[in-house]
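Why run this: before we spend reagent on co-expression, it is cheaper to look at a predicted model of the complex and decide which construct boundaries make sense. The entries below are exactly what would go into the expression plan.
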Amino acid sequence: MYNESAAQKKYLAGLRHKKWGITAARWGILVVFLLLWEALARLGVIDAFLLSSPSRMAGALWTLARTGELWLHVGVTLWETIVGFVVGSVLGIALAVALWWSDTLCRILDPYLVVLNALPKIALGPVLIVWIGSGMPAIIVMSLLVSVIVTMVTVLGGFLGTEPEKLTLLRSFGASKLQCFTMVVFPGALPTTVSALKLGIGMSWVGVIVGEFLVSRAGLGYLIVYGGQVFKLDLVMAGTAVLCVLAALMYLGVAYCEKRLRARRAHA
Amino acid sequence: MEDALLVFDRVCMRYHQESGETAVLEDFSLSVRRGEFVALLGPSGCGKSTVLSLAAGLLRPDAGRVLLRGQPIQSPPAHMGYMLQRDHLFDWLTVRDNALVGLRVRGKPDAGQLARVDALLESCGLAEFAHAFPGQLSGGMRQRAALVRTLAVEPDFLLLDEPFSALDSQTRIQLADEIKQALAGSDRATILVTHDVSEAISMADRVVVLTHRPARIRSVHRIALEGSPMQRRRDAQFRDYFDRIWKELDVHVQ
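The model came back. Tokens follow.
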């Protein structure tokens, strides 16, 4: 018994060791990358005007933060993304429910869904601007258009993946179609739905940034395009870095919800 | 006919597909009395499960009638229990919540029903797993939980569609004993579909052998054995029944 627990301790220590190593390597890559970039820029090996440098990016960010401009851009972009994501997800799930409900409707619309799924929704940008006008509403519509189709197709796939015998079982108890949906189809497809949301969040960011590239007077997309036009690469890089952090945080938020959901299912 | 609970009266059933139609049942007549245990035995794909789907009200016959207490079955009857090959427990619900699924379809279970489900879980040895999730259970325990779910709705008649086929042979015999015990003394009617001859003989009062598709009744064997499935398997007559029924099936394969 003693030997076994010693071996177990060794095994656990090994696991911890490995985990630490991986975390250290992750941060290490980032630090080395930034230091190397900074050093090469200072030594004049790379042109800091074209490629910027970490310190110049930090300077640009600091200036933006002091004037309060940064918070405006971040706020606008975040708002557009969240609204686009939420509306796109709700709409996507609702459409998936409708298509699951009516097999005929699903079959009729199938070719249209295939085309819509394949179409780069971004191509609709100019049309949206003409119809909706340039500004936040057009950007939000853009964002939800990009996310809604992916969400719908993925969630519908989850619904249709329900085992037919599970439905037979419920029907043998006299369950209605609505009960079949709420008791088996929806809860069974919940993991797929969460995966769809993870896809959708990335799509919403794409929609918002492209929308801001096309038409806007504020937002991180605007900041990046503006920086490019006036050749302030520090601004472009700083905007991109902020975008990276925000998108990662939002993704982690959804991933956290997924983890909580799984934990609740694994054991009450 | 008087105490017949479930009657199949010259039932015909065809499945329609683009590639053509398949006759599954042809002129199929059978009546099951209260308290009787009938086993349907036949080659796979012969239409045994179709008989159950008709009795469950999930399918309608093309011709003939399926009667429950003299009334044609229109939709799934209220006091019916249907057990499938696999347990089909929902992994997102606890064992107890799974057992309550049938009752919840019909509304909010009352205190009496809840107490009865708890007692059933207890008698199936699942009391300590009531709040566990199906993923933590063995195959035999999962099928027991499915049995509790089936019995929770207080069925007058049970339809068992090869409920043991996914289990190992030991668990299979043990569970057969438990099911027979759960049914003992009640006047429930049971139809068991299986392709296992021993299982049919060890559990049923009557074994009905079906032909290949379209299924007709080939022969009916009254089983005059007593006791639990385990005791029946040890009975000297068990072999005779086995040989007789085995031959019926054998002839048929050629």
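Strands of chain B lie at 4-17, 20-33, 37-41, 63-68, 71-72, 80-83, 157-161, 189-194, 206-210, 217-222. The longest strand of chain B covers residues 4-17. Bring this page to Monday's planning discussion.
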